[in-house]
Amino acid sequence: MTDTQACHEKLSVLSETGFVVLRSSRERLDPAEWESLAYLDWKSGGDTNFAVLASATGEDDPRGFWEHDKPDKDAIWTANALRAPSLRRWVMSVGARFGRVRIIKLQPSTSETDVTGQHLHLDDNNRLNPDGEGWVVRAWLNLTDDPDSYMILREDRDDPTTERRIPLPAGAQFVADTERLWHAAYHTGKSPRYAMIASFESGPALQAWIDANAVERMPGPRSSATRMTRTDFLG
């Protein structure tokens, strides 16, 4: 743990692996809510576009909150959010302070090697985060049904033995400390993958939401000998 991390409240559920997989969302979502949004040409983790639902100023701005001298908290809804009431409701249901909220539109990946070689990255979630407040982590809700695609998480960018994978069917939910874990999605589909990504402050509210959506089993380690099947994820 760095000195910066030591100054902030963190969730014990993330201490061992840096992430937690939750049960699938039970919310019935209308694809029109994300397909009708205004997307920006903003690259992160592959060939991506982003629709901004909440930003530092309420403007259609995908940049970090530090550009406006703010930590990644207390976001303001954008015009996009007015067209996505169910997605807004999902964010509010967590009950924790939230920062940037965006919809990612990810085009199909070229190869897994390209993803792990070019697109694994860390996020800058806690710049300007005041000492004594909760550590900012990220939560995902997968919107499209991409059961053969998966999020790749690594403690060490260049060490595949530290890798974990999270499958991405519709409704998949997970929380990760993405300032700790290198991550990128490998998308095998023929159409774009859509997912919502939201920053949340660690604390009792986020822990309560995680507890309410908990599942019993966690993804297992990546097999070094063979490609994993869908059942291998939960081994």
The CATH class label is Mainly Beta
Pattern of helices and strands: HEHEEHEHEEEEEEH
N-end to C-end Cα span:
28 Å
Low-confidence stretches: 223-235
Number of strands: 10
Q: What is the name of the CATH topology?
A: Jelly Rolls
Count of DSSP-assigned helices: 5
Q: How many separate domains?
A: 1
Given the C-alpha coordinates, what overall shape results? globular
The major pleated sheet works out as: 7 strands, antiparallel
What assembly state would you assign to the polypeptide chains in this entry?
single chain
Strand content: 25-35%
- What radius of gyration results from the CA coordinates? 17 Å
Give the CATH H-level superfamily: B-lactam Antibiotic, Isopenicillin N Synthase, Chain
Q: What order do the helices and strands come in, and which of them pair?
A:
Elements: H1 3-6, E1 19-22, H2 32-35, E2 48-55, E3 76-77, H3 85-94, E4 98-106, H4 112-119, E5 136-142, E6 146-154, E7 163-168, E8 173-176, E9 182-186, E10 193-201, H5 204-212
Antiparallel strand pairs: 1-8, 2-3, 2-4, 4-10, 5-8, 5-10, 6-7, 6-9
